[in-house]
């Protein structure tokens, strides 16, 4: 190997200095400027020693050369010999190049600095803030709900870290959410999988961390990588809530995140809600009301005055809040047996419009014994359900449905999906039939005999992009709605959609329930970011075991057409071993946003329940 020459070494050294950034380039420019000034001053002293008039030595000449280099316009006012004018002209031309390069370097350096500030690369100096890592459509739901939750708090902060432009993120969120109230939004551009970028979020002082599952291929791998990056950081970080799209990745994510991470299985949660909504009309609206921060919210309380009372007695303990269960050291149980005694280490699970409304009632409730109806819950009978379309969570939906229905029930699957009806071995209560069908075709739907079914589930076809899939779902819903009107048929319809913006269009079809899976998961993540202990409560609600939410005929609880207080409805349900949490007005079942559902009414509120209205209860099947 030949030895490097002096020229090669010099060039290598020069290249290294040039690569150090704007400061190094300005340094070289300064050296060139000094050289230019010295050369011009030297030539002036040599060729025109007595010019210009009044020169006082070499220092004065250097100053004149400097002024010509920085301001070439001074040449216009110069007078002297040809030699002097030629030297000053050359100095001015050289200065013109130097100044141009200096302006360009400074402009470029400032642009890079502004771009860096624009991207948000400074470390957050907040405390008690909520951190959102990653970007998906769920971020809009989460931010909107956290803004509502923090509406009465001063100085609340939501910090978002994602691989998007800082200003673009802020503009998108403000456009989607609107007024942020007292909550400040702070966005940072970076990769949530990089520990260096995570350091920008000041995680040690954060209140909670939400990890979003991004859009695109294999999103769960991205979530698991973020959890690994969080686990790698030294020191203590706040509780983490992460959303996953597939149940198959739960074990790997739990291993990556450790004990401080609560995982939300998007497929599992959406599947359970779709199944429950298909069997109980209005279930999705009830769950959405419980998950958002608008009206009825779920709280955990430890009131000393309830210790020693039974659960049945505690149902009347609050005037403007509804007791729905207990959080015990052994776990959450909703609608426990009415004779369950509340212990000192129990927490009471309540629904309230705000935590300030959770106050014990003064005195005994006003009950109308003459209005209470003694009736038994109807026995479960075999059901017929029609499932239209197929996607990746359809198998899970069918298996959950099998756990709810009575033996001898029938499920008809109609889809042109190549995987429709696969992987359904081992069902206990359902008999499954599969038919090839284009669910957007009116004649194909009529050939199914839809009127023979009690429930219809319309899934989103995963072979199409989300927007196109929602369009096909809308077409199917419109066909079903027209068939109901034309043929006089009645069956409950629950549909699955991707985009919340399509809900308003779907409401025209008057479907009983519309499940927007991304919105549901976003609401759940926001709830758990505020109070991760609610995970057990929502897990219980979405499980087929234990008590569930049912809308049941009001005539089974109180005399219809009679003016009663809601406390009377609560008492009637209590005597049946059920917990009443609200009611549904049948006349408003198609009126958004609550579709006739009223949760947690004041127990002294007089109401009149008519034929067709429902009482919403927590009950065993």
TrEMBL record:
One of its GO terms (biological process) is potassium ion transport. It comes from the Bacteria. Keywords: Ion channel, Ion transport, Membrane, Transmembrane, Transmembrane helix, Transport. The chain crosses the membrane at residues 21-48, 83-106. GO terms for cellular component: endomembrane system. It is found in: Endomembrane system. It is a multi-pass membrane protein. SUPFAM superfamilies: NAD(P)-binding Rossmann-fold domains, TrkA C-terminal domain-like. Residues 283-366 form the RCK C-terminal domain. GO terms for molecular function: monoatomic cation transmembrane transporter activity. PROSITE patterns: RCK_C. It holds the Pfam family Castor_Poll_mid. This is Voltage-gated potassium channel Kch. It comes from Nonomuraea jabiensis.
């Amino acid at each position: 190997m030949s030895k490097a020459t002096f020229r090669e070494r010099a060039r290598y050294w020069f290249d290294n200095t040039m690569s150090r950034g704007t400061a190094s380039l300005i340094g070289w420019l300064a050296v060139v400027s000094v050289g230019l000034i010295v050369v011009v001053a030297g030539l002036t002293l040599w060729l025109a020693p007595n010019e210009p008039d009044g020169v006082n030595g070499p220092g004065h000449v250097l100053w004149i050369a400097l002024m010509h280099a920085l301001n070439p316009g001074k040449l216009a006012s110069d007078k002297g010999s040809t030699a002097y004018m030629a030297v000053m002209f050359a100095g001015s031309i050289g200065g013109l190049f130097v100044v141009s390069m200096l302006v360009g370097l400074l402009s470029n350096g400032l642009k890079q600095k502004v771009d860096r500030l624009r991207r948000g690369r400074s470390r957050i100096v907040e405390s008690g803030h909520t951190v959102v890592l990653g970007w998906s459509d769920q971020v809009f739901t989460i931010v909107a709900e956290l803004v509502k939750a923090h509406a009465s708090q001063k100085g609340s902060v939501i910090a978002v870290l994602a691989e998007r432009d800082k200003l673009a993120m802020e503009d998108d969120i403000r456009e989607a959410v609107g007024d942020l109230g007292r909550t400040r939004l702070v966005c940072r551009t970076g990769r949530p999988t990089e520990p260096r970028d995570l350091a920008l979020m000041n995680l040690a002082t954060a209140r909670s961390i939400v990890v979003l599952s991004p859009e695109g291929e294999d999103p769960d791998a991205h979530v698991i990588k973020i959890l690994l990056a969080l686990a790698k950081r030294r020191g203590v970080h706040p509780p983490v809530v992460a959303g996953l799209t597939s149940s198959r990745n739960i074990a790997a994510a739990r291993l990556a995140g450790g004990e401080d991470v609560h995982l939300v299985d998007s497929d599992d949660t959406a599947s359970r809600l779709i199944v429950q909504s298909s069997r109980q009309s209005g279930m999705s609206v009830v769950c959405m009301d419980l998950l958002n921060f608008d009206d009825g919210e779920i709280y955990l309380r430890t009131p000393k005055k309830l210790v020693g009372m039974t659960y049945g007695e505690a149902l009347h303990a609050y005037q403007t809040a509804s007791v729905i269960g207990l959080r015990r050291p052994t776990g959450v149980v909703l609608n426990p047996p009415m004779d369950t005694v509340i212990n000192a280490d129990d927490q009471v699970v309540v629904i309230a419009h705000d935590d300030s409304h959770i106050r014990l009632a003064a005195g005994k409730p006003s009950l109308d014994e003459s209005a209470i109806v003694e009736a038994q819950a109807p026995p479960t009978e075999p059901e017929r359900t029609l499932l239209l379309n197929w996607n990746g969570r359809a198998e899970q939906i069918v298996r959950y449905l099998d756990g709810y229905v009575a033996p001898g029930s029938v499920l008809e699957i109609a889809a042109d999906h190549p995987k429709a009806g696969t992987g359904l071995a081992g069902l206990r209560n359902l008999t499954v039939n599969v038919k090839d069908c284009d669910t957007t075709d009116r004649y194909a739907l009529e050939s199914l005999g839809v009127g023979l079914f009690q429930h219809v589930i319309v899934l989103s076809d995963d072979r199409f992009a989300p927007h196109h899939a929602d369009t096909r779902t809308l077409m199917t819903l419109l066909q079903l709605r027209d068939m109901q009107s034309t043929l006089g048929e009645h069956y409950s319809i629950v549909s699955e959609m991707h985009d919340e913006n399509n809900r308003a269009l779907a409401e025209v079809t008057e479907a009983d329930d519309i499940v927007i899976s991304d919105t549901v998961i976003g609401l759940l993540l926001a709830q758990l970011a505020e109070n991760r202990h609610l995970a057990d409560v929502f897990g219980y609600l979405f499980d087929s075991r234990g008590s569930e939410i049912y809308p049941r005929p009001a005539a089974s609880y109180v005399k219809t057409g009679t003016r009663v207080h809601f406390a009377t409805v609560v008492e009637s349900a209590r005597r049946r071993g059920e917990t009443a949490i609200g009611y549904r007005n049948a006349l408003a079942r198609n009126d958004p946003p609550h579709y006739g559902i009223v949760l947690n009414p004041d127990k002294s509120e007089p109401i009149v329940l008519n034929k067709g209205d429902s009482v919403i209860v927590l009950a065993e099947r």
